[in-house]
Amino acid sequence: MVLLQRADAAIRSCTACHGDLTRHVTYEAQPNGKALPVPQVTAIACAECHRESEYLPAAGRHVAEPLPASAAKLPDPTAGVLQTLDRRASSTGFQWSGLLDFGYRFVNIKGSEDNYDTDINLSDGVRLHTIETRLLGGGKAFANELSLEAHDIGDPNWDARTRLKRENDYEAGASYQRYSYQYLATGDFHRVNLESTLQDYSTEVFLSSDVRAFYSFARSNDEGFWLTQRIGNRNVNVQPYIDGVQNPRDYESDTSTAGLSGNLGGWLWTAAADYIDERGLDQFSYDQPAPANPAFNDSEEFASQTTLRGPGAKFALSRDMGSWSFDFTGRFADHSRILNGTGQSAGFDVTQFTTSTTAEGSGTATTWMLDGGSTYMMTDTLRARLDLHWRDHRENFLLQQTVVTTLPALGTQQTVVTNLDQRTTQQILDGAVALEWDLTKMLTLTLGFGGARESLSVPSLDLNDPNDYRSGTVRDRGLVAGFDWRFADNWRLRGDLRDFGQDGVYLNELAPEKARIVSGNLSYSQKTLRAATFFKHRYIDNQVSDHQLDYYATGLHLGVTKNSLSLDADYTFAHTDTSTLTNFYFDPDPTPRATYVGFVGDTHTVATTFAIEPSAGLHWELTAVWTDTIGSTDLGTMDWRAGMRVDVVINGAAGVEYRQIKYREDGSSDNYEANLLWLYWRQTF
Q1: What is the pLDDT of residues 464-498, one digit of tens each?
Q2: Rounded to whole angstroms, what are the CA distances from 120 to 54, 107, 667?
Q3: Do the Cβ atoms of 555 and 573 come closer than 8 Å?
């Protein structure tokens, strides 16, 4: 692995990333000692070697490997060090470490500030980029680990989390994430301002060495404001388009999950129950002079409240018995939905009118999702693999709507009552069986057969339209094939083919009748040089909705790491050809008509990172990403940054980073250039 191939990591041993391993060594050294996992890697440890602004400890996850001969030796348990380790195991104290990364950002924007806020949305001011603190407790402490971390405090998107843990006793955690999204590009109705938050709380308690109880609670909240486009009042002919319709939306969801998991005679099992409670409020309104007679207003105001509630269950079972392994997971949900809507509108056709609308709806939905897989070792070199996936969704919804139209000038009133019984069912079976043969120690071949079957029934949108799709069954079957060939030292060639599949579980017009995915890559890797190339092709189509996607991409990667220098460069080319017959857009006609939407074009992306440490305590880095798209839309971006960091005091460093982003779109006023300067201080404790 690249992580273990770094010369500086090899000579520093496992402690370079995992920190204090004394408790781990103690347990491993004692006869019949209980295995104790090594401490998790933290962002503090990553910052010692990696100078990136983002730290991803999970990216370096790897299996345990023997240390090289040049590595520093771990304590020898037979040399008297056990006494020291035993004292640590009986300690109630804590060891503390921390990381603080904060600074000030300067921002200058030329061009469209709205589009900059859509893409980047970073502003001037003091920012706390990373704060992390970790307490590691001795063997008798109330916790083995207590941690707190937060990122990007002061920016629109930020997060914080904490965790408390004691090995084989309990674990508890909490997290908070905030996400802000704006879409402010030019257009008649392109305005979105959305803020989302997610709170997550979880706890796990060991009831015995083989059984654990767990509980989690998550609350998500979306609060947003849209400016949308609507077709005008249905009572007016010809129907106009209404731009800039105000459409505020609020959504809140609570999900609780409780369950047990454990090990029973080698069978790993999990059983859990959950409950979901969602609430939503969707509104829209507009008021403008009536096209037929500007002396009267054409207005509409509508509000819709929805709830979705119900229980669910999750279960999982797996077993590894040497030559045979098995895993099975299942998900069940039984939800009910209630809708209440009210609206008032006014307008002028041949005369003035007002309309009052009330709607009530209720329904239920049950869903089963089952997934299973098994591997059987027929011989030391031949394996059989089986994968099956099943989904069964059934939904009933009763909707009653009453529309009362009043014509004041004529003194008349008309009432129209609509009752709809909408029923939707979907069953999908998707599976494959394949043989894997280790032809040699360097070459593995895979060959199999798979198929997919989907039965779908949906409510008719127009009972008078004989071509309106309501129900049917689509089938697809084909080959599963692949190979993995290490044909020379440091070289690896891989390829995969899946020539079937509905490619999804959603009830929408994009579910394909035919799907094909072909991919492959060739890579070379050694201690100082890395190179790779890849290819991927994806094709799907659905003749019912006239949807098609033809996509392929290829690219190159080159990486060099030597002494204090590191260089990575990537190039990717992607071609996309997709179109769908949809009713989202309409032709300028009194009767709405379905229209093709899609994209055809090529995208080129070049990315490079260059880092060097010319002397101790000095680090310099340059990164750049260039993207250019040519096709239905012609646009391009250039995003590059250069930074330098200097050690000033022990464990403390000052840094500066300059970033420039340029966005170009032909024929658009959304072009901009942004210059960002980040001055910061990084301190480890």
Answers
A1: 666 666 777 888 889 999 999 999 989 999 999 99
A2: 16, 11, 21
A3: yes
- The pair phi, psi for residue 331, each rounded to 5°, is -140, 130
φ and ψ at 481, to 5 degrees? -145, 155
Which pLDDT tens digit goes with each residue over 420-475?
Answer: 888 889 898 989 999 999 999 999 999 999 998 888 888 776 666 666 667 778 88
User: Token pair of 178, please?
Assistant: 């905030």
CA distance 9 to 50: 11
Quote the Cα angle for 128-129-131, to 5°. Answer: 75
Long-range contacts of 499-503 (CB under 8 A, 24+ apart): 500/432, 500/450, 500/451, 500/452, 500/476, 501/430, 501/450, 501/452, 501/476, 502/428, 502/430, 502/452, 502/454, 502/474, 502/476, 503/540
Close Cβ partners of 615 (under 8 Å, ≥ 6 residues apart): none
Contact criterion met (CB below 8 Å) for 43 and 159: no
Task: Give φ, ψ of 430 to 5 degrees.
Answer: -140, 125
Residue 425 host element (H or E) = strand 412-438
Which DSSP category does 503 fall into? -
Write the burial class of residue 562 (CB in 10 Å: 0-12 exposed, 13-18 middle, 19+ buried).
exposed
What are the two backbone dihedrals, phi and then psi, of residue 99, each rounded to the nearest 5 degrees? -140, 135
Q: Read off the amino acid at residue 23.
A: R
The predicted pLDDT at position 254 comes to 97
Q: Give the whole-angstrom CA distance, residue 223 versus residue 221.
A: 7
Least Cα distance to 681 among 147, 150, 270, 100 occurs for 100
β-pairing verdict for 352-377 and 211-231: unpaired
DSSP 164-207: EEETTTEEEEEEEEEEEEEE--SSSS-EEEEEEEEEEEEEEEES
pLDDT confidence of residue 244? 80
Decide if 462 contacts 423 (C-beta within 8 A). no
Question: What is the rounded distance in angstroms from the CA atom of residue 53 to the CA atom of residue 47?
Answer: 9
CA distances for 186 relative to 112, 183, 195, angstroms: 10, 9, 21
The candidate with the shortest Cα–Cα distance to 362, out of 335, 344, 343, is 335
Task: Tell the burial category of 404 from Cβ atoms under 10 Å away from its Cβ (0-12, 13-18, 19+).
Answer: middle
Residues ≥6 apart with Cβ < 8 Å to 418: 399, 400, 401, 402, 403
H-helix or E-strand containing 5? helix 2-5
CA distances from 6 to 11, 66, 67, 527, 565 (A): 9, 15, 13, 7, 12
Tell me if the pTM is above 0.85.
Answer: no
How far apart (Å, rounded) are the C-alpha atoms in residues 560 and 610? 10
Kindly report the number of other CB atoms within 10 A of residue 307's CB atom. Answer: 14
Q: How far is CA 555 from CA 324, 519, 536, 561, 574, in A?
A: 38, 12, 9, 21, 9
Distance CA(418)–CA(361), nearest Å, equals 12
The Cα-based distances of 136 to 160, 166, 350, 419 in angstroms read 19, 10, 79, 64
Contact 486, 558 (CB under 8 A): no
Question: Who has greater pLDDT, 317 or 233?
Answer: 317
Tell me the mean pLDDT in the region 534-562.
Answer: 89
pLDDT of 127:
96
CB neighbourhood size of 579 (10 A): 15
Q: What is the DSSP letter of 405?
A: E
Task: Give residues with Cβ within 8 angstroms of 1, minimum separation 6.
Answer: 62, 65
Q: Distance between CA atoms of 251 and 221, rounded to whole angstroms?
A: 6
